[in-house]
Amino acid sequence: MRKIISFMHISLDGFVAGPNGELDWVKVDEEIFDHVGKRISKGDTALYGRVTYQMMESYWPTAADKPNATTHDIEHSKWYSKVQKVVLSKTMGDADLPDTKVISENLSDRINEIKQQPGEDILLFGSPTATHSLIQQNLIDGYWLFVNPIILGRGIPLFANIKDKIKLKLLTTRQFASGVTELNYTVDNA
Question: Which CATH number goes with the domain that contains 108?
Answer without folding.
Answer: 3.40.430.10
